[in-house]
Amino acid sequence: MPITRKPIEIPPQVARQFAADMKAYHAEQDNNQRDRIAVGTRHMLLEHTPTGTKLRLSEVKSYSS
């Protein structure tokens, strides 16, 4: 049986920042800078998730695809 995750509920301003970060991620040509954007976005999202929630960098990158 697959594990389902409870959706993350984040404030609107954080959602807008996430969208802006993803635009920047796609506009960036340098892979190192793209990784920095994704890492910063991951940290921002983790601030608004329940304690113990795991959010992998690869998951943040997949949301941006």
UniProtKB/TrEMBL annotation:
It comes from the Bacteria. This is Uncharacterized protein. It comes from Bradyrhizobium septentrionale.
